[in-house]
């Protein structure tokens, strides 16, 4: 091991800025089927909230934006599924702002789609082989 190596072991969470944490919990739990992993008050009325797909190693932290930071961003967060067509239909049925069609580029690019949360934050869903 190199003398300059760190002790970083993985990605614990990715942060998505939201305008209303309770509305975000509702979206991620009720619409996506995630579970709340943490909801911890701190400071002056702040909360650290993490949600994740059941069994997932990495969580999404639903954070209040820092002053001047926007919500409704392209998060560059990619989620995985083993049946994108079923999830596409389920998201539409639950009223999620999801692309009209699954993108099928062929080749090494898996079928994928983009959807937006309650604040317009964009996330990607890709069908990955098991």
Describe the structure in your own words.
The mean pLDDT is 95. The protein has a single domain, classed as Roll (2,3-Dihydroxybiphenyl 1,2-Dioxygenase, domain 1), CATH 3.10.180.10. The protein has a four-stranded mixed beta sheet, with helices on one face. β2 and β3 form a beta hairpin. Helix content is 16%, strand content 35%. It contains two helices and eight strands. The chain is globular. By secondary structure, it is α/β, with parallel strands linked by helices.
Write the layout of secondary structure elements.
Blueprint: E1 13-17, H1 21-31, E2 35-42, E3 46-52, E4 59-63, E5 74-81, H2 84-93, E6 97-98, E7 112-116, E8 122-127
CATH topology: 2,3-Dihydroxybiphenyl 1,2-Dioxygenase, domain 1
CATH architecture label: Roll
Q: What is Rg?
A: 16 Å
CATH class: Alpha Beta
Strand content: 35-45%
Oligomer: single chain
Helix content: 10-25%
**Any idea what the CATH superfamily is called?**
2,3-Dihydroxybiphenyl 1,2-Dioxygenase, domain 1
Structure annotation, total helices: 2
């Amino acid at each position: 091991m190199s003398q300059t190596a760190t002790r970083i072991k993985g990605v614990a969470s990715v942060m998505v800025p939201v305008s209303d944490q309770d509305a975000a919990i509702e979206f991620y739990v009720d619409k996506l089927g995630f579970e709340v992993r943490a909801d911890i008050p701190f400071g002056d009325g702040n909360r650290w909230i993490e949600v994740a797909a059941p069994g997932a190693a990495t969580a999404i932290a639903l954070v209040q934006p820092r002053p001047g930071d926007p919500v409704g961003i392209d998060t560059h967060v990619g989620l995985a599924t083993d049946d994108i067509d079923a999830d596409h239909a389920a998201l539409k049925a639950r009223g999620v702002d999801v692309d009209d069609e699954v993108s099928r580029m062929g080749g090494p690019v898996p079928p994928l789609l983009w959807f937006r949360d309650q604040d317009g934050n964009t996330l990607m869903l890709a069908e990955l082989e098991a």
